[in-house]
Design a protein that fits this description.
- The protein is an alpha/beta fold and 249 residues long.
- It has one domain (5-245): Aldolase class I (TIM Barrel).
- It has eleven helices and eight strands.
- The chain has helices at 16-29, 44-53, 80-85, 96-100, 106-118, 131-135, 139-150, 178-195, 198-203, 214-221, 238-245; strands at residues 5-9, 37-41, 60-63, 90-93, 122-127, 161-164, 205-209, 228-231.
- An eight-stranded parallel β-barrel has the order 1-2-3-4-5-6-7-8, surrounded by six helices.
- Strand 1 (5-9), helix 1 (16-29) and strand 2 (37-41) form a beta-alpha-beta unit.
- Helix 1 runs parallel beside helix 11 and helix 5 (106-118) packs across helix 7.
- The chain starts with a strand and ends with a helix.
- Bound molecules: phosphoenolpyruvate (PEP).
- Residues 9, 165, 170-171, 209-212, 230-234 line the site of phosphoenolpyruvate.
Length: 249
C-alpha cells in the first residue's frame, strides 16, 4: 500500500516572515492529518526558519534543487549536506523549470539523484512532456527516457519518488484529466518494473503535478496509480493547500 504524498513547491516565492506565516497556518489547519505525508518545499532562504518552525510537527520539508557535490568552489550552489543540516528530508530534482529555463540535462539530474540518495535525501524526480511532444505522440518516449536516465545507477533499496508533470499543465491552469494522468502513471510503473523488480515498482510513489487545485484534486488522487500531488500555485495559500491535502479524507 502506497502512502499518499502531497507536496507543495513554493518556487521563488515567500520571504522569511511570509514563509513562517504560511507554515504556521498549515500546522494549524492540518493538525491531526496522519494518514498521508505532507511536504513543503520553500525557497533556500526560508529552509532554516521553516525547519525550526516544523520541529515536532509531522509536516516534512524538502528543497527545490541542489548540486551533487558536498562542498567546494561551486559559487551559488547548495549541497545535500547543507539541506540535511537544515532539516530537509526530500529534494525536488529535474523540475521542468530547471530543465527548460536553466538547461538541466538528464545526465546532470541523474548525478543529483544519486547524490541525494547517498545523503539520505529522498529525491522527487520530475518528468513530463512538452505540448509539442504530446502533440507529436512522443509522450511515452520522452517520459521513458527521463525515467531511465534520471534513475540510472539506483539500487532497488534506494527510496525515490517520481512526479509526472506534463509541461503544458504547469502553471497554466490546464490540468491533465485523471484518465490522461493515470494512463501515463501506469506506463511509468511499467518502466519501473523493467528497471527494478515488480515489488519495488509497486512501492514507488508517482505524484501528479500540473495545475492541481482543490477543485480537481479528488478526481486525480482517486486514480489507482496517482499516489499524491506536486502542487505549485495552490501551495502558496494555506487554505488551498490544506484543502488539497484533505481532499480524499
Ligand atoms: C509545479 O511547479 O510543480 C507545478 C505543478 O505548478 P502548478 O501547480 O502551479 O501548475
Amino acid at each position: 500500500m502506497r502512502r499518499l504524498l502531497i507536496a507543495g513547491n513554493w518556487k521563488m516565492n515567500k520571504t522569511v516572515p511570509e514563509a513562517i506565516e504560511l507554515v504556521r497556518e498549515l500546522k494549524e489547519r492540518l493538525k491531526g492529518v496522519e494518514d498521508r505525508d505532507i511536504l513543503v518545499c520553500p525557497p533556500f532562504t526560508a529552509l532554516y526558519p521553516v525547519g525550526r518552525e516544523l520541529e515536532g510537527s509531522s509536516i516534512l520539508m524538502g528543497a527545490q534543487n541542489m548540486f551533487y557535490e558536498e562542498k567546494g568552489a561551486f559559487t551559488g550552489e547548495i549541497s545535500p549536506v547543507m539541506l540535511k543540516d537544515v532539516g530537509c528530508s526530500y529534494v525536488i530534482l529535474g523540475h521542468s523549470e530547471r530543465r527548460h529555463i536553466f538547461g538541466e540535462s538528464d545526465e546532470l539530474i541523474n548525478r543529483k539523484v544519486i547524490s541525494a540518495v547517498n545523503h539520505n535525501l529522498i529525491p522527487i524526480l520530475c518528468i513530463g512532456e512538452t505540448l509539442e511532444e504530446r502533440e507529436k505522440g512522443e509522450t511515452r518516449q520522452v517520459v521513458e527516457r527521463q525515467v531511465r536516465e534520471g534513475l540510472k545507477g539506483l539500487k532497488p533499496e534506494d527510496e525515490f519518488v517520481i512526479a509526472y508533470e506534463p509541461v503544458w499543465a504547469i502553471g497554466t491552469g490546464r490540468s491533465a484529466t485523471p484518465e490522461m494522468a493515470q494512463e501515463v502513471h501506469t506506463f511509468i510503473r511499467d518502466v519501473l518494473t523493467e528497471l527494478f523488480e515488480k515489488e519495488k515498482a509497486e512501492g514507488v510513489r508517482i505524484l501528479y503535478g500540473g495545475s492541481v487545485k482543490p477543485e480537481n484534486a479528488k478526481g486525480l488522487l482517486e486514480m489507482p496509480d496517482i499516489d499524491g500531488a506536486l502542487v505549485g500555485g495552490a501551495s502558496l495559500k494555506a487554505e488551498s493547500f490544506s484543502a488539497i491535502v484533505k481532499t480524499t479524507l
